From TrEMBL:
Keywords assigned: Membrane, Transmembrane, Transmembrane helix
Region annotation (Disordered) ranges: 1-40
Record field: compositional bias (Basic residues): 1-17
Transmembrane region(s): 46-64
Taxonomic path: Bacteria, Bacillati, Actinomycetota, Actinomycetes, Kitasatosporales
The protein's name: Uncharacterized protein
Transmembrane helix listed as a keyword: yes
Amino acid sequence: MNLSRRPGRSRHPRRKPPTPFRQRGGKPVTDADSPSPDVAKTGSPVVMVVAWLWVAVPFLYGLYQLAEKSSKLFE
């Protein structure tokens, strides 16, 4: 019995393509349902600054603590 693979044939059957997610009404979600790339959603500049500060301040504090503690290793 020869168990070698024959060229052009797969040992595994082909899978069905995945079904698209469905919205609440049962209608499949398509690319037409997504907003067009021409429409840019812009938020308030104040919200953007607050969001950046919310992330940047703890990050910079962590970098400061890292530099302070790692400098003691090289003394």
